[in-house]
Structures are given as structure tokens and as C-alpha cells.
């Protein structure tokens, strides 16, 4: 639900008005680009040049349906393996999450290999190469290039919008597809003219819109009237992107933002809470990482202040281990974000296997999204019947993946490469666990209105 630090925005490239393949927004469509003269070479890769891939964990497989390839190679000389480049922070300040994301990609590959590999390529094995970007954009770009040189047919990552900006720029220039798993800033695709980049994760615009919609639905059920809002965000690209998205989503509603406050790394929230007390909004929407969430709740408790509605939006700090640190004050609060669909058996099995294999907490949110993105990448290989980047790109343009573990409709991509059916669900903290309460089709419990403003 969150990603890393600051980011430089890259403007869209100009396209000639006389180009018959341009869309009304001035951007040349992917399909039109291909039709205009890009022809897939259908060259298959017979392996990986240089370096060592990561080992894949052992365990029981879980079955998934495989469709007939929509784009196929005319050659029967299939490669022995197809290669995914995983670009995540494996060392440094964000390495804990980075390794969990990378492990999710590894596990998706393991499950596919246990099922016989890529069936459309005579059982080619799915191999995962790791790239450690250390939460540094410069390193991210360099690592992406190295993974391509080592044989990566397609890439995924990165957890940080600035790093993703750099990494996707390299992938685009090399003509290798990059499917973003975690990087929230809408500008990554909305303000750049890219042909090889896709994003399975809901972006900052859709997450913010879903937050406002979900909160409105829950408030109606609870009989709450929310007219004024306070925004509290970590001062990074992630926090700024969600802040902007919320302001965008609130326009045209009956709500008004009456106070906005940010917090930096290592900062306290005392003065910000004082400002919220003075503005007295009906609801506060925090968008922060773990430490900043703890600081916010501590400052609110110290000042004996709590709004009628505490509803975190895309916050990295809203998970079980953190709830225990905050204490009972957080029980009943609301939180939105994309989530694993624990109403389905497959998601439960994958979640349990992930915890056992890596001796780590449950997947949920970000980790589930990384696993699902890897599933999309693997299904692209299956439907393409090829490891050629151009064929993979054409396949991703038309792909639909309806069997995945997220609380989200089938995944396909728009002309800009965004998820066409993104969804962030609304959770309520009940008995110190985040439970989905909206939309109803993914809900694990009923909302408890009496708990929302109990503090």
C-alpha cells in the first residue's frame, strides 16, 4: 500500500498530431504502435547468461488454471527456462519489506514449477533473478540493466516510486517489459509515455478514490456525518501522492479538507496533533509508515484527543504487529488499502504457505500484491508461448487474469498500462485484527458502527 521516498517526475514525450495512430489524449497507443510496424522477432532465450539465480523454496503447490496462449511462437525450440528479474531493496532501511516482496515472487515461481512449468513452452522452468536496489534510484537503474544483461525476459518491482522511475526508464530503453508490483505514484504511468511498463497495483488516484467511496459507504451504515477532514502524511513521494489523490477524490463530495500536516522520518507528531485539535475535523486520514503511525497515535493519546473517525488511507503502519504497540485505542478504527481475499481458499493456502516457508508474518497487502503480480507475469509467459519481449508486451496488452489471490476484480491493463480494475477495500480493526468490511463481496465481517468513534 505504500512505497519509498522522493521521486523526479518525467514528462510525456511529444507525439506528432499527424500520426494517425494517436489517441485523443495525444499518446500513441501500444496496439497502434505495434500495428504501425513493430514485429515480434519470436526469438526465444535458451537460458540465462551470467550470474546465479535465487533458489526457490520447497512446499506443496496450489493449482491454477492455464489458458490457451493468445500469442504464440511459430518455433518449437522452446527455452529450458524463462527468467523474471526481481528488483527490490534487499539491504538497507527498507530491506525487511523488500525481502518479503522478493520472497513472494520466488514462491509464485515455485508454485508454477511444481505444476509443471510453462505448459505452452513444454514445461519451461520459471527462474527468478534477484536485484538489490538498496532504495537508491541510481542503483535501481543500474541493477535493472544488469538483470537484463543476465537474461531477464521480464521484470518486476520495486517498492519505491523513485527507484521504479529509474528502473522502468532502463527497461523501456532496452525494450523489456516491466510489471510494477509496488509503487503508488500515479505519475509513474500517467505522466510518462511508456510502451513496456505496466502496473498491477492500484495507483494513488484509485486508492484515494476507493478510500473516499468506502468511507462514505461505511459512514452511511454507521450513521456518521463526515463533513470535515484532516490529512496527515509522511513527507515522501508516497505520502505526497496519496495526499494529492485524496484532495482530488474529495473534490465534488460533501467533505472539505480543513487541515493538512506532514511528518518526516524521525519526527514527532505533537505539533501536528495540536493543529488537528484546533481544526477539529470529523475525520483524520493518516498515510504514513509504521514509525510515523506510532508517533501519531502516541501524540493523540498524550493530548487526550481522538477524532470521530480515524481512517488510514494506504498506510503502511496498519497491521497486526503495530496494533499491539498502539494498544486498544486503535480498535474500531478504519483503514483502506488493497488486500488479499481471505474469503477464498486459494488465498488462505498461499498465505499459510508463505508464513511457513519463510517463517514470517502473513502476506496481506503489499506482499500479496507482489505475489499476484508475479502470477500475472507467469501467465503472460503461458499465454505468449514465448520469452521474446515483444511477444510478452503484446500479450500483456490483452491479458486478463481472473484467478488471483487479491480482493480485486480480474486484472487487465489499460492503454497506459494501469490495472483496469483496481480496488482498495475498507477494513475495520476488530479485536486488534484488520477485517474487510467493504465492499460486501470481499467482506470478512460486518462493520461495527459503535466501535468507530469509541475513542
From TrEMBL:
Keywords for the protein's UniProt record, in alphabetical order: Signal
Any one Pfam family match given in the protein's UniProt record, by short name: Peripla_BP_6
Keyword Signal: yes
Residue ranges with Low complexity bias: 54-76
Region of interest called Disordered, as start-end residue ranges on this chain: 1-30, 48-79
Record-annotated membrane-spanning stretches: none
Annotated ranges, domain Leucine-binding protein: 82-426
Annotated Polar residues bias: 9-19
Domain of life per record: Archaea
UniProt keyword Repressor present: no
Designated name of the protein: ABC transporter substrate-binding protein
Organism: Salinirubellus salinus
Amino acid at each position: 500500500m505504500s512505497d519509498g521516498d522522493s521521486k523526479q517526475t518525467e514528462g510525456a514525450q511529444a507525439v506528432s498530431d499527424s500520426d494517425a495512430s494517436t489517441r485523443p489524449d495525444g499518446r500513441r497507443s501500444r496496439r497502434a504502435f505495434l500495428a504501425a510496424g513493430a514485429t515480434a522477432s519470436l526469438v526465444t532465450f535458451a537460458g540465462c547468461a551470467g550470474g546465479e539465480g535465487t533458489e526457490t523454496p520447497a512446499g506443496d503447490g496450489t493449482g491454477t488454471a492455464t489458458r490457451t496462449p493468445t500469442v504464440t511462437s511459430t518455433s518449437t525450440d522452446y527455452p529450458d527456462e524463462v527468467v523474471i528479474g526481481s528488483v527490490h531493496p534487499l539491504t538497507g532501511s527498507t530491506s525487511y519489506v523488500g525481502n518479503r516482496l522478493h520472497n513472494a515472487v520466488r514462491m509464485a515461481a515455485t508454485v508454477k514449477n511444481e505444476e509443471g512449468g510453462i505448459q505452452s513452452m513444454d514445461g519451461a522452468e520459471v527462474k527468478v533473478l534477484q536485484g538489490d536496489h538498496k532504495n537508491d534510484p541510481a542503483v535501481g537503474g543500474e541493477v535493472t540493466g544488469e538483470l537484463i544483461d543476465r537474461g531477464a525476459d521480464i521484470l518486476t518491482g520495486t517498492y519505491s516510486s523513485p527507484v521504479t522511475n529509474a528502473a522502468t526508464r532502463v527497461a523501456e530503453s532496452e525494450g523489456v517489459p516491466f510489471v510494477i508490483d509496488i509503487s503508488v505514484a500515479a505519475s509513474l504511468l500517467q505522466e510518462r509515455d511508456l510502451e513496456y511498463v505496466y502496473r498491477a497495483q492500484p495507483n494513488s488516484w484509485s486508492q484515494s478514490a476507493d478510500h473516499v467511496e468506502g468511507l462514505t459507504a461505511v459512514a452511511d451504515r454507521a450513521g456518521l456525518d463526515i463533513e470535515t477532514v484532516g490529512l496527515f502524511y509522511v513527507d515522501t513521494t508516497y505520502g505526497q501522492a496519496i495526499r494529492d489523490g485524496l484532495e482530488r477524490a474529495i473534490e465534488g463530495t460533501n467533505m472539505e479538507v480543513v487541515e493538512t500536516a506532514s511528518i518526516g522520518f524521525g519526527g514527532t507528531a505533537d505539533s501536528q496533533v495540536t493543529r488537528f485539535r484546533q481544526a477539529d475535523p470529523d475525520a483524520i486520514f493518516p498515510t504514513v509508515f509504521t514509525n510515523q503511525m506510532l508517533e501519531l497515535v502516541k501524540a493523540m493519546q498524550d493530548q487526550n484527543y481522538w477524532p470521530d473517525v480515524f481512517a488510514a488511507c494506504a498506510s503502511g503502519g496498519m497491521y497486526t504487529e503495530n496494533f499491539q504497540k498502539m494498544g486498544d485505542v486503535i480498535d474500531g478504527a478504519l483503514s483502506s488499502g488493497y488486500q488479499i481475499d481471505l474469503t477464498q481458499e486459494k488465498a488462505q493456502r498461499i498465505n499459510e504457505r508463505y508464513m511457513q516457508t519463510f517463517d514470517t508474518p502473513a502476506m496481506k497487502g503489499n506482499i500479496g500484491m507482489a505475489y499476484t503480480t508475479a502470477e500475472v507475469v507467469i501467465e503472460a509467459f503461458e499465454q505468449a508461448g514465448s520469452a521474446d519481449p515483444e511477444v510478452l508486451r503484446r500479450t500483456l496488452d490483452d491479458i486478463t487474469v481472473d484467478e488471483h489471490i487479491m480482493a480485486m476484480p480480474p486484472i487487465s491493463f489499460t492503454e497506459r498500462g494501469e490495472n483496469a480494475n483496481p480496488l482498495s477495500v475498507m477494513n475495520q480493526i476488530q479485536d486488534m485484527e484488520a477485517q474487510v468490511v467493504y465492499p460486501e463481496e470481499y467482506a470478512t465481517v460486518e462493520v461495527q458502527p459503535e466501535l468507530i468513534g469509541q475513542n
